[in-house]
Amino acid sequence: MTKMRARRNVGDVLKIDLGDGTFSFGRVLPEPLLAFYDSRSDTAPEIEEILSAKVLFIIWVMNHAITSGRWNIIGSLPLEENLKIAPNFFQQDPIDGSLTVYRLGEETAATRQECEGLERAAVWDPEHIEDRLRDCYAKVPNRWVESLKLKPE
User: Fold this and answer.
1) Where along the chain do its domains lie?
2) Using CA atoms, how far apart are residues 35 and 55, in angstroms rounded to an integer?
3) How far apart are CA 21 and CA 54, in angstroms?
4) pTM of the predicted model, to two decimals?
5) Could you tell me where the DSSP H helices lie in the chain?
6) 13 Cβ partners below 8 Å, 6+ apart?
7) Average pLDDT over residues 94-108
8) Chain segment 5-64, per-residue pLDDT in tens
9) How many angstroms separate the CA atoms of 104 and 75, rounded?
10) Each residue of 70-94: pLDDT tens digit?
11) Longest C-alpha distance within the chain, in Å?
């Protein structure tokens, strides 16, 4: 399939070249969010097959991943209800270590327990996401994920 357009629209399905002859797939959510699926292939499966896979993670992504044509749009379908719910992210003050949960522009003081399992509020470059996906499939820790984990108390 070919690139349909170089701007992001909610529901677009993205083909992500992992640089090893395989592709992974993502989905455009309300800006700046993208969901990434547990789907890896040496071709582009049917859109429905991609979207039936588990979502690995949802994070903020730089627009240029799509607008530059680096990741090709291979189709589009309306979002499922569960993908319309904005996720929580955590933030950790680099000086005093205090924690907040961030959701839809609102920050709320949080405990460590409330932040565990959440993604750090950060905008990812496409290269780092490609690294993360390759590492996920290789079942090895990803240096970018590790660098963004909660810091010790």
Assistant:
1) 1-84
2) 7
3) 22
4) 0.91
5) 47-51, 64-67, 112-115, 126-138, 143-148
6) 25, 26, 27, 47, 50, 51, 73, 74, 75, 76, 77
7) 94
8) 467 799 999 999 999 999 999 999 998 999 999 999 998 799 999 999 999 999 999 989
9) 27
10) 999 999 999 999 999 999 999 999 9
11) 49
Beta strands in the chain (DSSP E): 12-17, 23-28, 33-41, 55-61, 72-76, 89-92, 99-103, 106-109, 119-120, 123-124
Identity of residue 41: S
Contact 62, 24 (CB under 8 A): no
Instruction: Write out the two tokens for 41.
Output: 């292939």
Q: Please, are residues 86 and 24 in contact by the beta-carbon 8 Å criterion? A: no
In whole angstroms, give the CA distance from residue 92 to residue 112: 10
Residues 64, 32: Cα–Cα separation, whole Å: 11
